[in-house]
Write a structure and sequence with these properties.
10 helices, disordered C terminus, binds glyceraldehyde-3-phosphate
């Protein structure tokens, strides 16, 4: 299976998180962008301050790789104004996809109207500029009931406020890749979680992100029905694909 066109190849570490200098971290980002170009991945997902760099490299290479960035990352607890300001800047800088972190803690506190409003306004801004919009629900911070509820809320908000032809441009995405459970275990795109999201997101597509590491895992996600996979292991997944097809 050709998985490359499902892959949002992701590098979201700050220099401090990667324990690198700013220059060294930028080098890592440059390598990731080049890797996405060389492997013809669907998208390169980087921090907002690296979008201009990605745009330049992709244009120079005359590549079809698209650019995604994260908004209000990784906690999603900024104000609606914060989210929109950041998203507008990302659009101006040339991002194709806006991966917003929904305020999942506000949702857990029962602040449903505020969460609905951010989904309406953030989606409206993205779609008005012909962007793909994704809402990261951070599944590891939620129990199964909350995953169902938040996925359903996003779906219902989109159905109520946007036209049918726009549904496939608004994703529900599982994870930031940065959340740690209290036990310190990263938790993301597991099969049961993604199934739960898919069962409740339709007609909105799902992006599986967080912990997808191998070609086999990527294929499993695609077979379940996800339309994108966010992963910091895109190259390994693509290599697995090549070695798999050799047998
Ligand atoms: O948006 C995608 C995630 O950051 C990827 O998570 P990962 O680093 O566990 O692959």
């Amino acid at each position: 299976m050709n998985v490359k066109q499902y892959l949002d190849s992701t590098y979201l570490k700050t220099a401090a998180q990667a324990n690198l200098s700013e220059n060294e971290n930028t080098e890592v980002v440059i390598n990731c962008i080049q890797e996405a170009i060389d492997n013809d991945f669907k998208l390169i997902m980087i921090r907002p301050d690296k979008v201009v760099l990605a745009k330049k490299m992709i244009q120079k290479a005359n590549s079809k790789v698209t650019i995604g960035t994260v908004i209000d990352f990784p906690l999603g607890n900024g104000t609606l104004e914060d989210k929109l300001v950041e998203a507008k800047q990302a659009i101006e800088n040339g991002a194709d996809d806006l991966d917003y972190v929904v305020d999942y803690e506000a949702f857990k506190r029962g602040e449903v109207d505020a969460v609905k409003e951010q989904v309406v306004q953030g989606t409206k801004l993205g779609l008005a500029h012909n962007k793909i919009v994704k809402w990261i629900i951070e599944v590891a911070a939620l129990d199964n009931h909350q995953i169902v509820q938040l996925t359903t809320l996003i779906k219902n908000v989109v159905i109520a406020n946007f036209s049918e032809k726009e549904y496939d441009k608004v994703f529900v995405k599982s994870s930031t890749g940065f959340y740690k459970t209290p036990e310190g275990v990263p938790n993301g795109a597991t099969v049961p979680t993604i199934k739960l999201m898919l069962e409740n997101s339709f007609p909105l597509p799902v992006k599986a992100a967080g912990g997808v590491r191998t070609y086999e895992e990527a294929v499993e996600m695609i077979q379940l029905g996800v339309k994108r996979i966010g992963t910091s292991a895109a190259k390994a997944i693509a290599n697995g694909e090549i070695s798999n097809s050799d047998y």
